């Protein structure tokens, strides 16, 4: 191959290795590049060997990128969807999982951190439960990958889906699915891989089995640089410490704003740097407009593609408005946000 093609291949290899190292995945070849986290979740959910009558066990906080594929499988194959029991803060109670398990349960799936409340689920306990039962465990790490330490081996995660453009600091159009050794998925797409080209069927080896067409090499180079920057900052553990400090200060200040109601865990230790609110009886979309007009605060209002979460919270049909803090937010920025909130 010509030098630029070799360099492009090296970028893919290095990015796979860096992601495998970050999440302690045993085989970089089973780090499958995807378009984003939704793409990775679809690959996982449609790649499993479902049969009519099978069941999936999920949390009540799943994103539509899990709910919609599962409901498509429900319509197509007649699978059923069961919901894990949670406590008053929305955290799954592992000790009560046995009551929701069924003989035909074929998947346990959990969002690691809610994109609505920021609440963290006990994925290590869920992984241990699923492993004891011999059931694959899928984790949606859209909000946690890069912001919270994740060890797929220690947490017994069989399928880890995540985007590149959030806490991993890569560009849009990047993401991955990590597939545990011994677990095989059917490919969603079939086509050119640059390998086994004499065959008319998709290769049976990884990553080629699940990756088709030209890779987003420029995007993956950006993701590789983001991963390097993340490690220089001390990795996800350092990010978590910083974001917990910012979130603690923000929640303490927000608690003193009259009429402002927080949804989800009360403290910063059980969440990522995401917090949802309602302001009195005002529609969240209107509050979001006022926050932008008064202080150029960028918050997200609505259902956040997670209608089950809002149903559990009692915030249907118009949802909440949500703050989320990235790695470049400072204490000064937190205080500025609180000043604008107090001015409402």
Q: Can you give me a brief rundown of this structure?
A:
With 344 residues, this protein is of the alpha/beta class.
Overall 3D form: globular
Would you count the extended β strands for me?
11
Look up the CATH topology of the largest domain. Aspartate Aminotransferase, domain 2
Find the CATH superfamily of the largest domain: Type I PLP-dependent aspartate aminotransferase-like (Major domain)
Question: CATH top level of the largest domain?
Answer: Alpha Beta
Low-confidence parts, pLDDT < 50 over ≥5 residues? none
Over the alpha carbons, how many angstroms does the gyration radius reach?
21 Å
Largest sheet: 7 strands, mixed
Strand order of the biggest β-sheet: 1-7-6-5-4-2-3
Structural class: alpha/beta
Task: Provide the CATH architecture of the largest domain.
Answer: 3-Layer(aba) Sandwich
Number of helices in the DSSP assignment = 9
Helix content estimate: 25-40%
Oligomer: single chain
Structure description:
With 344 residues, the protein is an alpha/beta fold. The chain is 36% helix and 15% strand. The strands form two sheets. The chain has a seven-stranded mixed β-sheet with strand order 1-7-6-5-4-2-3, sandwiched between helices. A four-stranded antiparallel β-sheet has the order 8-9-11-10, with helices on one face. The termini are far apart.
List keywords for this structure.
2 domains; 36% helix; Aspartate Aminotransferase, domain 2; Aspartate Aminotransferase, domain 1; alpha/beta; seven-stranded mixed sheet; 344 residues; four-stranded antiparallel sheet
